[in-house]
Design brief:
The chain is mainly β and 273 residues long. Helix content is 7%, strand content 44%. Strands 1, 11, 14, 15, 16, 17 and 18 form a 7-stranded antiparallel beta sheet that branches. Strands 2, 4, 5, 6, 7, 8 and 10 form a 7-stranded antiparallel beta sheet that branches. It is globular, with a radius of gyration of 20 Å.
């Protein structure tokens, strides 16, 4: 199992952005108070380029809350001093269904339908690479809306403990349906309000002294009021990964328990933003 990954320091929020076109500005992919989305004027070869304040290492790019169809592609290029130093090439953003699981006549060809989930995302994991910018190219000739739209973009170096110190069994994900039940005068029951958000809780129960120190510094730097991207089952694919991967904010304090020599236990709870 791949170890959990959390982007706590989002380089994209501080980057200077340019877009090939914009019905709504590319800066809406950064944290800017109310929730908006960048929207291009077409669905063909739309680009967003991000230039960092200073050269830095990144190993992850996440496109969160996009409207790409099952044939839409994303291309990620790392830039340094005007040159492309890493290129994924165009990659289909939809999740691939393994042979033997795909159902003829039911599932879309080559992709898994995750449209029932609150927000669909696409991620790229790489080796840490020194860059001063990156470029995202979106191409989706089958897009029914006729334009590309992206809610948030995250980039940086995710925190990820070694596999032997990965999350313990007992990961709990709650789908919290917003609104409330109300009785009418006649006694019938109605639900007022709508929407759903996730609450994720897990434990890191096997951290050694060195890893505990790293986690403490990362979490204190992020605090409780900062948006992070969390992915519990990276590179797993399907509903399992998509349901456990979202933009979140820490709920409650950071605490730990030194239960025996060179072993630390730490509970964590995150709320979807």
């Amino acid at each position: 199992m791949s170890t959990i990954r959390i982007i706590m320091d989002n380089q994209h929020d501080l980057a200077t952005l340019t877009a090939s076109s914009a019905q709504a500005p590319a800066e809406y992919t950064q944290i800017k108070g109310r929730s908006y989305s960048w929207r291009g004027i077409s669905a063909r070869n739309e680009q967003v380029t991000a230039m960092l304040e200073n050269p830095d290492f990144i190993s992850a790019v996440v496109v969160y809350g996009h409207n790409l169809s099952s044939v839409g592609t994303v291309q990620v290029e790392y830039l340094f001093e005007g040159a492309v130093i890493y290129d994924t090439g165009p990659i289909v953003a939809a999740d691939i269904i393994p042979l033997g699981v795909w159902r003829a006549g039911i599932d879309p060809w080559g992709g898994q339908d995750l449209s029932a989930l609150p927000s669909i995302h696409y991620n790229v994991w790489t080796e840490p690479t020194l860059i001063d910018g990156y470029r995202l190219t979106f191409d989706d000739p089958g897009n029914v809306g006729g334009y590309i739209q992206v809610g948030r973009i995250f980039s940086g170096i995710p925190y990820s403990p070694p596999k032997k110190m990965n999350i313990d069994f007992g990961v709990k994900l709650a789908w919290q349906f917003r609104g409330e039940k109300q009785r009418t005068e006649s006694g019938s029951l109605r639900h007022v309000g709508g929407g759903v958000s996730r609450r994720l809780s897990f434990d890191l129960n096997h951290l050694d002294d060195e890893e505990y120190s790293i986690l403490t510094q990362e979490l204190l730097k992020a605090g409780v009021g900062k948006d992070v991207y969390i992915n519990v089952f990276p590179e797993t694919g399907g509903v399992k990964e998509a349901a456990h991967a979202f933009v979140a904010m820490r709920d409650g304090d950071y605490e730990h328990d030194h239960d025996r020599h060179n072993n630390w236990r730490s509970p964590h709870v995150y709320l979807e933003v």
